[in-house]
Amino acid sequence: MSATSPSKSNVVAAHELQKLAEFIVQARKEIIAINAPKGEEQKKNLSIAAMELDEVVQHTEQATNKIMDKCDAINRIAIAINSPWATKDLRDISLSILEACSFQDITGQRIRKVMRTLAEIEIRVARLVALFGGTMPDNMLADPATAKKRPDEHLMEGPQLRGQGASQEDIDKLLES
Amino acid sequence: MPVNKMMPILIVDDYKTMLRIVRGLLNQIGFNNIDEATDGTTAHSMIQQKPYGLIISDWNMEPMSGYELLKKIRSDEKTKTLPFIMVTAESKTDNVIAAKQAGVSNYIVKPFNAETLKMKIEAVFGPI
After folding, report:
1. What Å distances lie between residue B118 and A25, A27, A86, B3, B128, CA to CA?
2. Looking at CA atoms only, how far is residue A32 from chain B in angstroms?
3. Residues lower than pLDDT 70 in chain B
């Protein structure tokens, strides 16, 4: 089996990177076509997967607001019913539903983490294409201008995976120490 | 002295659904004088103009995070003792320690319920 020469490997790698970059741009065009109501101007600064994930966040927000509207309706009924136990039960149910709706915040933050990761991947692909002397397709997610680093950026990781991160009990002990 | 349920409270979060949830939970506990802000910068401006009794803030916001807001409040003579509860998905011990060192009054990790919110407010003010 003959080994591939380094220069031939570089050519193959450059070719694959070019194809990958063109795939990313083509996929974005297709997604923009699907989501026609939104202007292309809004989309061009988002990576392709970020556009889809952004839609997920929007839809979950709409659904959550509808659920909370129903909670308000339950509360109004609870007040209108002149029955101490029924009123309490209905308000407790409404409260539990409201508490559960915080899923939208947590999922939204997790999705934003994924979106940032995907944007970074697209930027790195763009850099590699440039490094290998390829042609940057139009609308490739460009390297963002050097953004001012937030002083607490290292502390902003968002929700931790299950089993990681401190529990409320752990946090209470830390604060008391 | 029992906590004044009429005190103005400012809740700060960039997710509007979360603002609605916290407002709803505070209503259930008995607090109804509530204002909202969707980022630290807006919140800071509101705090300069109105004597809030309590700030309940998320951490991860732009352009100013809840942590930056906390530090700004604590560095101002007029607001350095203003009660500030962080309500956030940031649950690493580094975050809690940083917030504690910055002078946070209490720290709630998301997701949370009305009972937890009530307990943490009581820990700052006394029985509701």
Report:
1. 50, 48, 23, 11, 8
2. 25
3. 1
